[in-house]
């Protein structure tokens, strides 16, 4: 079967130093793990274990209070050490110290081709990995009672320094195919890939394969939904922007166990030897990053990629959807003589303000500085140049800021996720936190429509 090809013109490629080489580092865990509810957008956690309890890999640590059937599995077997809480008793994380000998809950091997959609959903709920599936509208962890018109999986990672899924899936092709087969029992499933992806070799086993040919953010699952089958008011689609989740699902059906291992890229201009490493969701980052950069350098450690990841520390834990741990200069100790008036061949500029645009596809060592303060929105079309979706980005942001819900609906807020505005936030001369604005708008809309 031939794949459909969708060409996208809008977007922006940012070439950064420190891309992970396709070599794998063997990492010995220190045994400390934690599952963080904030990794699952829209979930109100209810802890179902007590400090001191012993759990197996696959046992639930917490459930979604609004949908108690949605459980979230422990990545390891061990002892529950603490349930950390913040202000107003908000659950920050559930820490588990792993056993030396791992034990797994046996959910039994299953053939998804002999199951219907309800049986597949029940199997994912029982194993505690259903919550890794998201939905549009609202870009939140999905509700098992919702009826999706389709499921969209993006197997294209194209953000700066993004981990290669082609590299991760090597040797796990059957798990990937099994995971897609299970999803296809729930609803029609589309798989978005890049034009050079090796996944196209599995074409005979994967239906509805769509090739996206264009710059970042072509890999955003929201962009792919918009270009394949947009979401209208009243419709729901399930999305998997993190293709490793498909491997989680495939492993469950092929082995009967919950295995939350993912291949993570240790990358960034401050990393001595950028490479890949196999880690479990929730694994402490200390052993990975402690010797990965020069001591004394003021760095920012990012749980995820540079555009959408969260700032963390060495004592943080691998995020549920993080495929990269990125280390870049913080920039607060930078001392630039004459500042902006210099030609700046080592600084990246979209508007050609610096002479670096003459250097072609040069790789840059960018830092975390914003380089300016928040100011009024200028209607310049900046967002539209990097947003390959059939929406008016600047008008939508203004509607969210002013709280005009009717206008937001007309401008397509049901189709977007915060990550779709990551590049627009990068190029924004007004220095607005666009992803935060979109998230707040989606949360308000969800409450209004509840």
List its traits.
450 residues, 21% strand, 20 strands, alpha/beta, seven-stranded mixed β-sheet
Q: Can you walk through the features of this model?
A:
The protein is globular, with a radius of gyration of 22 Å. It starts with a strand and ends with a helix. The strands form four sheets. Strands 1-14-13-12-15-10-11 form a seven-stranded mixed beta sheet. A six-stranded mixed beta sheet has the order 2-17-16-20-18-19, with no helix packed on it. Strands 3-9-8-5 form a four-stranded antiparallel beta sheet, with no helix packed on it. It has helices at 117-127, 165-169, 173-184, 221-228, 244-255, 286-289, 382-385, 393-402, 405-410, 422-427, 434-449, and strands spanning 4-7, 24-25, 32-35, 45-47, 54-55, 60-64, 67-73, 78-85, 91-98, 134-136, 140-141, 151-154, 189-194, 209-213, 237-240, 261-267, 275-280, 299-303, 310-312, 324-329. With 450 residues, it is of the alpha/beta class.
Note the overall shape.
Answer: globular
Query: What is the total tally of β strands?
Result: 20
Query: Average pLDDT across residues?
Result: 93
User: Which sheet architecture does the biggest sheet show?
Assistant: 7 strands, mixed
- Classification by helices and strands: alpha/beta
| Helix run count | 11
Report how far apart the termini are: 42 Å
The low-confidence runs, each spanning 5 or more residues with pLDDT under 50, are none
Strand order of the largest sheet: 1-14-13-12-15-10-11
Fraction of residues in H or I helices: 10-25%
Radius of gyration: 22 Å
Q: Assess the beta-strand content as a share of residues.
A: 15-25%
């Amino acid at each position: 079967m031939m794949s459909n090809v969708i060409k996208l013109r809008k977007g922006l490629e940012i070439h950064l130093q420190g891309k992970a080489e396709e070599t794998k580092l063997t990492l010995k865990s220190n045994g400390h793990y934690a599952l963080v509810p904030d990794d699952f957008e829209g979930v109100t956690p209810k802890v179902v274990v007590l400090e001191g309890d012993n759990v197996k890999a696959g046992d639930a640590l917490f459930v979604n209070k609004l949908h108690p059937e949605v459980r979230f599995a422990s990545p390891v077997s061990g002892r529950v050490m603490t349930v950390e809480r913040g202000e107003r008793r908000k659950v920050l994380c559930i820490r588990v110290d792993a056993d030396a000998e791992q034990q797994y809950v046996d959910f039994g091997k299953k053939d998804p081709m002999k199951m219907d959609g309800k049986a597949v959903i029940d199997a994912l709920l029982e194993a505690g990995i259903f919550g890794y599936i998201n939905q549009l509208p609202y870009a939140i962890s999905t509700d098992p009672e919702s009826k999706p018109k389709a499921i969209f999986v993006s197997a294209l990672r194209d953000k700066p320094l993004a981990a290669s899924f082609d590299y991760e899936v090597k040797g796990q092709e059957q798990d990937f195919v099994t995971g897609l087969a299970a999803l296809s029992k729930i609803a029609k499933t589309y798989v978005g890939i890049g034009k050079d992806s090796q996944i196209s070799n599995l074409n005979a086993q994967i239906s509805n394969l769509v090739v996206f040919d264009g710059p970042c953010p072509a890999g955003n699952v929201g962009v792919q939904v918009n270009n394949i089958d947009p979401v209208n008011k009243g419709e729901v689609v399930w999305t998997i922007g993190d293709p490793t989740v498909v491997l989680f699902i495939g492993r469950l059906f092929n082995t009967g166990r919950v295995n939350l291992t993912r291949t993570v890229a240790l990358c960034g201009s401050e990393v001595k030897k950028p490479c890949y490493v196999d880690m479990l969701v929730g694994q402490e980052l200390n052993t990975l990053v402690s010797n990965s950069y020069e001591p004394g350098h003021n760095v920012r450690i990012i749980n995820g990629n540079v555009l959408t990841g969260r700032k963390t520390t060495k004592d943080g834990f691998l995020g549920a959807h993080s495929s990269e741990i990125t280390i870049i200069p913080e920039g607060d100790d930078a001392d630039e003589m004459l500042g902006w008036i210099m030609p700046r061949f080592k600084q990246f500029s979209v508007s050609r303000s610096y002479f670096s645009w003459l250097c072609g596809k040069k790789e840059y060592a960018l830092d975390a500085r914003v380089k300016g303060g928040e100011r009024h929105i200028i209607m310049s079309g900046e967002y539209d140049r990097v947003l390959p979706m059939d929406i008016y980005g600047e008008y939508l942001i203004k509607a969210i800021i002013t709280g005009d819900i009717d206008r937001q609906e007309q401008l397509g807020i049901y189709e977007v996720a915060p990550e779709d505005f990551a590049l627009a936030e990068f190029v924004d001369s007004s220095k607005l936190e666009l992803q935060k604005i979109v998230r707040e708008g989606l949360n308000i809309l969800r409450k209004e429509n509840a």
